[in-house]
Amino acid sequence: MSSLPILVLNSGSSSIKFAMYQADYGERTKIFEGAVDGIGTDNGKFWINDATGQKLVDQTPHLPNRSVAFSLVEKTLHSGQFPAPKAIGHRMVCGGPTVLENQLITPALIDEMEKYTAFAPLHTPIAVYIMRESLRLFPGVPNFVCLDSYFHRTMPEVVTHMPIPEEYSAMGVRRFGAHGISYESIVYQLQPTVPEKLIVAHLGNGASISAIRKGACVDTSMGLTPTGGIISGTRTGDIDPGVLLFILRKIAETASDASEAADKLETVASKKAGLLGVSDLSNDMRDLREAIGKGNAKARLAVDKFVWTIQKWIGGYVAELGGLDMLVFTGGIGENDIACRAEVCTGLEALGIVIDPERNNVRGEATISADTSRVEIRVIPPAEDLIIVNHVVRLLGD
Predict the structure, then answer these.
(1) Considering only Cβ atoms within 10 Å of each terminal Cβ, which end of the chain, N or C, has fewer?
(2) Domain span at 299
(3) What is the tally of structural domains in the chain?
(4) Backbone angles phi, psi at 285, to 5 degrees
(5) What pLDDT digit, counting tens, does each position of 344-392 carry?
(6) Domain containing 285 — which CATH number?
(7) Which tens digit of pLDDT belongs to each residue from 315-326?
């Protein structure tokens, strides 16, 4: 294999991230990366950096919808300024109960995955749209789907099976998990000495935790959708179902029909809850830290609840794993919020988790455990694009 440019497309609810890698004889070299951010807002951004971080494109376009956003990406990639991709890898949160493996994308496969939009309602619609457009705009170029849920496929049935009537389980309702490509990238980066008992906390606007034994996932906090688990920037995390029923009944008093009521409830649970809902201020940890510094009690409560929830999951996973060798923080908050890491670890000393304040005073990759800590504590940025490239190369070979 020689000269194989691979394009990675990673879509979110309001962004499209992309990167180009050169894959040669086991080597992976990043050529450039970029994103369109702020889709559907007044703060649109479009940027591309080369492998050294130098700006190649830096614009603030109007991005009213995903069509305009992806058209901007496509036209730039077809401008002749960048190498044409010979394969394309797409990140997908969950393909539903019938699509569990990373594989070649066909129109029929996209139709099948679209049936399960409710399993990742903030991500699947834009992901399937971009897949269809990619097949149309890059004719003859093989496209592959890489699933977050793929990493979690090793979880046992006692973890994946939901405590619901069988008729709904038969519809595919189960724990799928998310952030799997991020977790897979941490395991990949820890090679060849992956600890036997590992917990990874992916903390960002979307946040989750996974328990990993010998490199394989045994449990993860997110459930059927990314709304479950620990609280996130705008998501409830796990919550008493009675709370949602109460809110639904209140919404139903003014909704025109059941569908409208369900849509409004989804907005409450996925876009107005979490850090934003508790603080009544922001879903951005940086804003909350600033507000805490000014004595904002609601911001303090939101962050405390975030930390408290993470600690509970860590404690449960230590019990599930029968101990712990390493705790890894990753994601935007995990990498950059020094105070959050300290707050999470404080109080977990009985589990052998002891953080070193001086070593923790860093952003980016580091080992931050104290010499007295039985558990190694590390900060490792995820490498999701690299994992997608590796899967694309493998699938091309298959």
Answers:
(1) C
(2) 193-237+273-379
(3) 2
(4) -60, -30
(5) 999 999 999 999 999 999 999 999 999 999 999 999 999 999 999 999 9
(6) 3.30.420.40
(7) 999 999 999 999
